[in-house]
Amino acid sequence: MVNSLAEFERAVFKLGYPDVPVCVKPQISKGGRGFRILKKDIDKVDLLINYKPDNTITTLEDIISILEIANPFPKLVVMEYLPGKEYSVDLLVKGGEPLITIPRSRDLTKLGISFIGTVEDNKEIREMANKIVRAIGLDYNINLQLKYSSEGIPKIIEINPRVSGTIVLCTGAGVNMPYLGVKMALGEEIPQIKPKYGTKMIRYWEEVFITPDGSSYKLNG
């Protein structure tokens, strides 16, 4: 965590920049707001012409040009760049003890939202998630996010004491986690349910048309 431009620069170089990319985001944020990946050798013309403006890649110099005029300086987190596969884990936890743990891969994300995901029987991710909630003593519906490093080590990037935005994938795989959370709050027994591993979710756009008289319809493909 850094609270000044000098601390920010020291942290970036300590994590290996410019030899390796480095990530930065605000200490308090949501939905990927403020997240950037710092890379040295990027083609700025290519970024301008061929990428949408929501691209997260930038350079240290560009970030410094913004931060040096910031008043007050924003509280930031400087982090290791993790290039590997990303997982979101939904858990139902009772007094720090995980009752149900469901890892799902984030196969395609846009603006921090998972558009394609798969419920996956990843023992390593499941055991790490269980260890984290036990250590912290969390309760009820919990979401963790982990990502693999270049050395193949899963590392925690988010701990969310709430339901996740894509928890519906667990429901699609046969485990309605919010419903089970309510049952737990009511003191009811929680059944041992295993998800249908391999279940994949794909989000997509669908147009709804409104006629002048106010009725609606969809086009059938």
Descriptive report:
With 221 residues, the chain is of the alpha+beta class. It folds into 2 domains: 5-80, no CATH class; 86-202, ATP-grasp fold, B domain (D-amino Acid Aminotransferase, Chain A, domain 1, 2-Layer Sandwich). Helices cover 24% and strands 31% of the residues. It contains 6 helices and 12 strands. The chain has helices at residues 5-14, 44-50, 60-67, 123-136, 168-172, 177-185, and strands at residues 22-26, 36-38, 57-58, 76-80, 86-94, 97-110, 113-119, 140-148, 154-160, 200-202, 209-210, 216-217. A 6-stranded antiparallel sheet has the order 9-8-5-6-7-10. Strands 3-2-1-4 form a 4-stranded mixed sheet. The chain is globular, with a radius of gyration of 21 Å. The N and C termini lie far apart (51 Å). The model has no long low-confidence stretch (mean pLDDT 92).
Tell me the β content.
Answer: 25-35%
Radius of gyration: 21 Å
Taken in chain order, the helices and strands follow as: HEEHEHEEEEHEEHHEEE
Mean pLDDT across residues: 92
Task: Give the SSE map.
Elements: H1 5-14, E1 22-26, E2 36-38, H2 44-50, E3 57-58, H3 60-67, E4 76-80, E5 86-94, E6 97-110, E7 113-119, H4 123-136, E8 140-148, E9 154-160, H5 168-172, H6 177-185, E10 200-202, E11 209-210, E12 216-217
Parallel strand pairs: 2-3
Antiparallel strand pairs: 1-2, 1-4, 5-6, 5-8, 6-7, 7-10, 8-9, 11-12
Descriptive keywords:
alpha+beta; D-amino Acid Aminotransferase, Chain A, domain 1; six-stranded antiparallel β-sheet; four-stranded mixed β-sheet; 2 domains; 221 residues
